[in-house]
Amino acid sequence: MNRDIKNLDLRELQPFERHEKIFRMLEELKDQEILRITNDHEPKPLFYMLQGEYPGKFKWEYEKQGPKDWIFKITKISQDNKREKIKEMLKNLQKENVSNKLKEEAKIMLKNISPTELALIEQEIIKEGITRKEMRKLCDIHLEIMKEDFKNKDLKLKPGHPIHTLMEEHKEILDFVDKLKITVKKLESAKDFKDVKMEIEMLRFAAKHLVEADKHHQREEEVLFPEMEKSGIIEPPEIMREEHKDIKPKKKELYKIIDECEKLSYQDFVKKVKEIIEFLIKELPDHIYKENNILYPMAVEVIKEKKRWEKIKKECDKIGYCCFTPKC
């Protein structure tokens, strides 16, 4: 018998002895070693317990499935092998028509990997040839799969912490996006500028404040992102920078169109404004969701020293804050 395979016959044990014996032997397994178990009934409870308590750490294979005996092998997955499996899974997620089965497998893997470890794996994938455009698509799929798990997660940061401030600003930015969404519907139902004077002022207000949010992006790009890069996190900040490049010109274009609306016919004005607003109400919330749930937790995880956060705060203070930044 291969020395890497350990055998356990549960039929020889009393039911109350089995659980302790199984998990003691699993804990003793080294990478790539196998625990081969023989049982007198289908081991579904054990299978689900392993998935719940040790996701991604063991591989399960059946040799025999009843009717009298069940024989199955549990292999301990090495960390290097785990990284390769995650890389392969991430590449498969980019393909068209991703199955629900693959999404569920991805959820189990991603649930038990830290944001930092995931970022390092993504960096390896980019070095192997994936483009940042493809990585952005992958980031969207990651969020779709993990959306339920991200809910109600709290970084437990005090007011005044740079990340806390950025997240509070996000709430205000989302409120301006909601104003755009509501107002553009009213514009579509009207026929002339004189019918929507209040709505245009609301648009002007929201667009002006979204342009003002460039200071928010500046603090990220010039202070937070470089600090993350010093800690080895390269690609996630770079992807966020690219999204900023897409978003910032659209905000300025919207404000300019509203400010010069008298130069356009009402129909052309609504058409142009609607096109930009539809872009912003999709891209801005998605961007904010990525930062709140992936980038910021990553930053908190890799920047551990209090002095570094104090330095980040001082640099942010020098750049300044948005007119809508909540007071600490």
The gross shape turns out to be elongated
How are the strands of the largest sheet arranged?
1-2-4-3
What is Rg?
26 Å
Oligomer category: single chain
**CATH architecture assignment of the largest domain:** Up-down Bundle
Helix content: 55-70%
Q: Quickly count the helices.
A: 12
Helix/strand order, N-terminal first: EHEHEEHHHHHHHHHH
Q: How many domains in all?
A: 3
Q: What's the name of the CATH homologous superfamily of the largest domain?
A: nmb1532 protein domain like
Brief description of this entry?
The chain has twelve helices and four strands; from the N terminus they run E-H-E-H-E-E-H-H-H-H-H-H-H-H-H-H. It is α+β, with helices and mostly antiparallel strands and 328 residues long. The longest helix is centred in the last third of the chain and has 37 residues.
Structure write-up:
The protein is of the alpha+beta class. It has 3 domains: about 5-75, Translation Initiation Factor IF3, CATH 3.30.110; about 80-150; about 160-320, Up-down Bundle (Four Helix Bundle (Hemerythrin (Met), subunit A)), CATH 1.20.120.520. Helix content is about 65%, strand content about 10%. It contains 12 helices and 4 strands; from the N terminus they run βαβαββαααααααααα. It has helices at about 15-30, 45-55, 80-95, 100-110, 115-125, 130-150, 160-190, 195-210, 215-230, 235-260, 265-300, 305-320, and strands at about 5-10, 35-40, 60-65, 70-75. A 4-stranded mixed sheet has the order 1-2-4-3, with helices on one face. A hairpin with a 4-residue loop joins β3 and β4 (about 70-75). α9 runs antiparallel to α12 and α10 (about 235-260) packs antiparallel against α11 (about 265-300). The protein starts with a strand and ends in a 9-residue tail after the last helix.
